[in-house]
Amino acid sequence: MVPRPIECPMSGSATQAVYELLRANLLAGLYRPEEKLKISELGAAFAVSTGAIREALARLTAEGLVTALPQRGFRVAPVSAADLRDLTDMRIEIETKCLRRAIENGDIGWETAVVAAHHRMAATPIAAADGSFSPAWTIAHGEFHAALAQACGSVWMMRVRDLLFVHNERYLDLARKTDRGNRDVAREHRELMEAALARDAERAVTIMTAHLAKTRDTIEAALLAAAAMTEAR
Amino acid sequence: MVPRPIECPMSGSATQAVYELLRANLLAGLYRPEEKLKISELGAAFAVSTGAIREALARLTAEGLVTALPQRGFRVAPVSAADLRDLTDMRIEIETKCLRRAIENGDIGWETAVVAAHHRMAATPIAAADGSFSPAWTIAHGEFHAALAQACGSVWMMRVRDLLFVHNERYLDLARKTDRGNRDVAREHRELMEAALARDAERAVTIMTAHLAKTRDTIEAALLAAAAMTEAR
DNA sequence: TTTTAGAAGAAAATATATTTTTGTTGCCGC
DNA sequence: GCGGCAACAAAAATATATTTTCTTCTAAAA
């Protein structure tokens, strides 16, 4: 057989590629909440047909990252302080439950994965040139938290966790320039890892809860500040 | 203005209608797990273009009701006893948490909705002519459980609850002919409502947990029996 | 007899064209 | 001058056609 030409399409199909790209852009805050996502514009931008865009948007709609208004197209899902509080409450519930079970069930493979993920995250610069989170750190951060939860041994719990985490990422970016100096995120993560590896469930849960709540408060402040600014214009 | 012709399209767009219909069929167990969902066949069956089908399937993929294999089309998501156990564990966590919060926060409107939903469900025949659950009862049942949880006051909690509930429905149908006689489901539901209205959180949670576990066991038995039969053919 | 290569057919992925709907602007009547 | 109606433009929804990819059947060689 003739070896295939180099090509190697990014992710199988064009639709899949568009979906992933669009999703990444959405999570990175490239489009503002409530912004209209014009199908033909996106099609032109990504150089694919409108059908592929529609399919990607349909998937994102089911995920809740975009909203679909019948006959009126798609928009970026809205954000609000109330939603953030609700989301964080739920995240605290799920993340701590995952964490407890992971600490109980985790084997040496889990420990190794956590240490590895933490090492990568710690070695990655947190800020990009423009003041936002660097994409590499965002990925490493997500993988660290995922690694921590992984050993919970439940596919559904991980699935729900991932869903909530992804939605939080959308908010995370909004707080990018807000008092990051007031906070030692690296230390929080390190302590989290240490408590988990020490199998100290109570301490780990306490740290995780504080970590998530602190993140929420930081974002909420940025969110309210932005809202006030919009109000006053 | 000329009054529009009767039409009144079921749910806005054709895609939306196809999505809802396909989803209902999926939950009713009309297609078997792992079965291939041919786009052109579905398009012919529903008398819409392939694009509409693709869009509906994309949304269902994001929901986890169907799986997409790149370049190889779509299939009905698989089921397994392990997945059912995992799913039920998660459901018990979430449903009981919703229930506790609803019992704490629920106002007179909530009580009214619960009573109303229960009344409708109790008055609906549970079995259809062919031995499966009647569609009307399935809907009423879903609405009863939703009404119970509604007052939890968290959009995200309800969203996760709904996701899990929907996936459970897919399993529910598999156990349709299995020893339903051994079980007094109506009594379980009545006791659940009574405990909730009496604001007895502990009792309500106990009943709910038993209810969900019992459902799981019934389905699991049917699932294993079906697997054994497939094995032996 | 089994395995593999090739070709034909089927189905999915994608692009393009058409139709329908919606939002906007300008004009006419009040 | 203000409100409503009509025509136009933009965008979404849908259908159809084309291309690509995968699967299966057959035939030939080991």
Fold blueprint:
2 copies of one chain form a homodimer.
Chain A: H1 14-27, E1 36-37, H2 39-46, H3 50-63, E2 66-69, E3 73-76, H4 81-105, H5 108-122, H6 135-150, H7 155-172, H8 185-197, H9 201-232
Antiparallel strand pairs in A: 1-3, 2-3
The structure holds a DNA duplex (30 and 30 nucleotides).
Question: How would you describe what is shown here?
Answer:
The structure is a homodimer of 233-residue chains. Helix content of chain A is 67%, strand content 4%. Chain A is mainly alpha-helical and 233 residues long. The first copy, chain A, has a three-stranded antiparallel β-sheet. In chain A, helix 4 runs antiparallel to helix 9 (201-232). The radius of gyration of chain A is 19 Å and the shape is globular. Chain A binds chain B through residues 11-13, 15-16, 51, 54-56, 58-64, 70-71, 83, 86-87, 89-90, 93, 97, 154-157, 159-160, 163-164, and chain B through 11-13, 15-16, 51, 54-56, 58-64, 70-71, 83, 86-87, 89-90, 93, 97, 154-157, 159-160, 163-164. Chain A binds a DNA duplex (30 and 30 nucleotides) through residues 1, 13-15, 38-40, 48-52, 54, 71-74.
